From TrEMBL:
C2 domain boundaries: 1-127
UniProt xrefs under SUPFAM superfamilies: C2 domain (Calcium/lipid-binding domain, CaLB)
Protein name per Swiss-Prot or TrEMBL: C2 domain-containing protein
Pfam families: C2
Gene3D superfamilies: C2 domain (2.60.40.150)
Amino acid sequence: MDTPCKLNSYCLSNICTHLDDFPGKAQLYIKNGYFYGLDRWTQTDTYIKVYSVSKLSGFKYIGRTRTIHDDDRPDFDETFTTEISSKEGSFILEIFDLDYNSPDDLISRVEINFKDCLKLDVCTKNFGSSRLRYNIIWTPQI
Ligand SMILES: [Ca+2]
């Protein structure tokens, strides 16, 4: 006979497992951003490197957006997907301004947690005078 599991727990291989500990898939959607006055000569030439952090997978590079040149309000409209074993995992975004005559400038390193964006539509992350609009969805693989 099945033993009922507590709230938000489900039977996985005969063990009551909290939903947050199920293996899962995370999808990060980067919609757009606002990065003003960060390039001396033109508007900002932005690209974003995406990493995930989780208890089981550690720190992992996932990929990067394309570079959007000379635009303080870049529209990325790009999606990144990764396996994250715990809902407590997060994404780390490194936002760069591309430069041709010097090393690219790191505009900011931003952490995005699942609990910061629980709604289904686009969320906003403000940092300094910059802004990033995104969404993250985590789906348990049951
Ligand atoms: Ca630049």
